[in-house]
Amino acid sequence: MGTKFKELWNDPEFIDDAQKAKINREVALIGKIIEIRKAKGLSQRELAKVCGVMQPAIARMESRKSTPKIDTVIKALEPLGYTLDVVPIKRKQKIKAKKKAIKNHHSSLQKTT
Q: At the top level of CATH, which class does the domain 5-81 belong to?
């Protein structure tokens, strides 16, 4: 029986924390692009046309068959109404903490009603 993904993912000899963090960032970014594209009702082909790249480049990016070039990501984001920002890590952590606090607050309000 073969090795399962979860076993490999949790094996520090196979993948270290820095590699996991890089993969998680890429998956989150690409996932957000897919989410936005679908919310706007665009197909991969339509997004490719408006951002000036070939449809296979969008497909490879979305399937994570290859890591997209930064300019491809930017080209894909712009017609969707988004851009990339450089955000200090501490600010990002504060934003996450605020979102978590709001979610917890909403959960506690729902429990009391």
A: mainly alpha
The domains of the chain are located at 5-81
pLDDT tens sequence for the chain (113 residues): 467 888 888 888 888 888 988 889 899 999 999 999 999 999 999 999 999 999 999 999 999 888 888 999 999 999 999 998 887 877 667 777 777 878 777 676 666 55
d(CA 113, CA 109): 7
Model pTM score: 0.70
Positive/negative CA dihedral, 70, 56, 78, 25: negative
CB contact burial 36-72 (16+ within 10 A = b; e otherwise): bbeeeebebeebbeebebeeebbeebbeeeeebeeeb
- How many angstroms separate the CA atoms of 38 and 72, rounded? 18
Distance CA 97, CA 65 (A): 33
**20: Cβ–Cβ under 8 A, 6 or more apart, which residues?**
9
